[in-house]
Amino acid sequence: MTISKVSTLVSSSWLRHQIQSISRSANVSSHLRVLDTSWMPGDKSDSYREYYQQGHIPTALFFDLAKMSHAEKDSAIAFPIPDSNAFQDYVEDLGISNHTHIVAYDRFNSRTSFRTWFLFRLFGHNQVSVLDGGLRKWISDGNHITTEENDVEPGEFDVNFQPHLLKDYKTMVENVKTNAAQVLDARGAKGYHKGHIPGAKSIPYDSLFNEDGTMQTPVQLKKLFDDAGVDLTSEITSSCLQGLTACGLMAAAHILGKENVPLYNGSFAEWAALSNPDMISQTAS
């Protein structure tokens, strides 16, 4: 079966039309899965109960990123990559198969949506998009939410792990010496100036978005990359503090035609914990 390429972002009007189609044709539902990824890292509350059950987009299921991110004891990596088998089992329980188009959204600032976008691509599933502007834009466009929860039939999802989309600490240390890849830093200016990976280029995550939470136009995104001195025709690796907002930079690059930007999953949290002071650059603000 031929699977057409999907957009990095989809609009609320596009999603509303797809959901309406699902309600008219039962066999469409297996081809689209809307995932509510609402989660506040560090918040000990039950995201399923506190966010999803309070109201979500119709047909959406809850995607528990916390379940996918169990930090290991004494590890500086805040959000480790899940085990392939565990990921496969979890998404199959959500009725996801290899032909399913996934649309991820959240109710905050889209960082968990982009993390979800990255994880599916890491496990070989490119049929994944992010709802532009998330739940906030969905509601502001006049669409309703529901507390109804739907049952789904299990899917059949074969993992095809893409190791080239991940970089580890050792590789990043070597890159400081070789400058083989440009390193992006999605943290805000304050964090970046206090300390960053040598040579890293600053593109703050928040600069990617308009006031309504939607992503800027490709022309505006290209200017952000150009102003940061990023050459999109060359190798790039994305980073942030803990491996979440970096995924937004990866998605922005994807919109601009840069298909495969790896993530340094440990990001600056791991870098600062493992590196000597001479491997942490500071910039006057």
From TrEMBL:
Q: Name one GO cellular component term.
A: mitochondrion
Q: Where is the Rhodanese domain?
A: 28-147, 177-280
Return the Pfam families for the record: Rhodanese (PF00581)
Please give the Gene Ontology molecular function terms for this protein.
thiosulfate-cyanide sulfurtransferase activity
Q: Which UniProt keywords apply?
A: Repeat, Transferase
Q: Which PANTHER family match?
A: SULFURTRANSFERASE (PTHR11364:SF27), THIOSULFATE SULFERTANSFERASE (PTHR11364)
Task: Provide the protein name.
Answer: Rhodanese domain-containing protein
Lineage of this protein's species? Eukaryota, Metazoa, Spiralia, Lophotrochozoa, Mollusca
